[in-house]
Every structure is written in structure tokens, then in C-alpha cells.
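sorry for the late reply, my laptop died twice this morning and i had to redo everyting from scratch. anyway the thing you sent over, i finally got around to it. pasting the sequence first so we're on the same page, its 308 residues, then the predicted structure underneath. double check i copied it right bc i was rushing
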Amino acid sequence: MFNVTIFIIQGFSFTPGLKLPIFVAFLIIYLTIIFGNTTIFAVIALDSHLHVPMYVFLSNLSFLDILYSSTILPKLLVIIATQNKAIAFTGCMVQMYFFMALACTEFLLLAVMAYDRYVAVCHPLHYFAYMSLKHCVIFASLAWAIGLLDPILHTVLIANLNFCLANRIDHFFCDVAPLLKLTCSETTNIELLNYIEGSLLSFSAFILTLVSYIFIISSILKISSTNGRQKAFSTCSSHLTCVVIFYGTIICLYMRPSSSYSPKRDKFFALLYVALIPLLNPFIYTLKNTEFKQAMENIWSKASLIVL
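ok and here's the structure:
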């Protein structure tokens, strides 16, 4: 069993003079993430025209990004502001669990969204038969259920390791790799479980995403008109951009043996994953989306009339 009750999150090393600018930067990033993703979620919920599979999945992704950033960034802000780097053992395990659970859920949501775009581009006439709201709810529910269930065993096993009174986590949150570096217990089984389950889930999601886009690109190339190809590609370009950023950071973070763990490098890529992806998603999905912009304008107009 564990013999420490508190972990110390070392966070980032910076001179005292940079404390305020760094705190303000992270606070702006966090507030932007919350505002941007809450706006997407609210607009989709309030506009009935957006109650179609693509936007239902997008609202799920926005809600996930809110949870994601809220799992890590508030505690990081407290650490930077107060220099109180302590986190209770239970709090650390809870943070690690939700980080893994939300990561698994995002893998699956992005895969389902890729399948949705495949049906929209390759089988447009059967889109609402294959991707009805009923199917949409089932797919989204499965993604959340599998994501939330998958890390339970990992968390239980790590929580029962012996940490030998070593409690300084060389990271800015409780992640698996830096935690395993602190234990004097045998971790082979846990690492094997991480690789097997992680590989099965991520590889399955990646294959579904990859195959979907192979068929999408093949169908787009068969379209004779340039405008037709551009219109078809525009329906999935936002999702493809998010997929590339997401898998790029995940590969750099986790697709390597634990022996090659590098705190500085991993902090950088983890920061991209925790902050950059939730920050960019609202802009990627809405900047060129005329349908979403129109929905926002309609809601704003109605809200203005009510206030007046």
C-alpha cells in the first residue's frame, strides 16, 4: 500500500519575475477555453437547426474540452499563484483518473465524428438513415461509457503502489509516467496493461478514423467539379485538423517506452494537449462555419429583443 498522503507537483521552473505574466497567460487561456466551448455547447443546445449528428458530436467534444481543461488548469493556476504545490493523494488519483478517462473518450468521439463525416460524404442520400439522432446518442453514450470505465483498473492498481515516501511529481499534474517513476513497487504489469489497453483503444479509434478518411478522400477525388470537391472537403476539414493535432501530441507523449520519459519534453507536449487543443477546437470548428455563425446571430438577435 502507499505510504505517502501528499504529493508535491513541481510544475514549471521560472524566475519569480515571470510569475505574474505566466499566471495571467494561463488564466486567459483557461477562460478562453471555457468561454469558447461553452458558447459552442450553448448555441447548439439552443438552436434546433443544429440538432443534427455533426453538431451533437461537436457539443459533446466541447463539453469534454471544458472538463479536460478544468481537470488540470485550475490546480496549475493555484500552484503558480500561491506556490502551494501540494496535492492530496486522493486528489492526485482523481485527477489522473479523469485525465485518462477524458483522453479515452476523446479518442472515441473523434473516431465517431470521422465515421459521421464518412457517411455524410460517401453516402449522403442515406445519411439520416445511418446517422439518425438515435444512432448519434448511442455512439456518443458508448464513447463516454467506455472512456469513463477504461481507466478504473489502472487507477486502482496505481493507487495501491508503494511510493516509498518519494512524493515529488516532476510534472504539472498527476500523470501516469511521472507517478510510476516514484514507486519502488514492480510496475511491469501496470505498464503492460497500459500498453495493451491503451493500444487497443487508441489503435481501434485511429484505424476507424484513418479508414473513414481514406474513403472520404477517395470519394472527394472522384468529384469532377472543383467547387464540388472544395465543398465536400470543407465539411470535414475542421475535424481533420483537430485529429492531426490530437494524434500528433498523443504520439509524442505516449507512443514510447517509459524508460525514455523526459520531464521537460513531456511537460511541453502535455501542455499542448491540455491547453492548446481545447483552446483551438472552438476556433477551428466555427471560424469558417457559416451555419454556426448564423445560429449565433439568430440567438443574439433574440436575446437583444428580450433585453430591449
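Residues 89-122 form the longest helix (34 residues).
thats about all i looked at so far, will dig more tmrw
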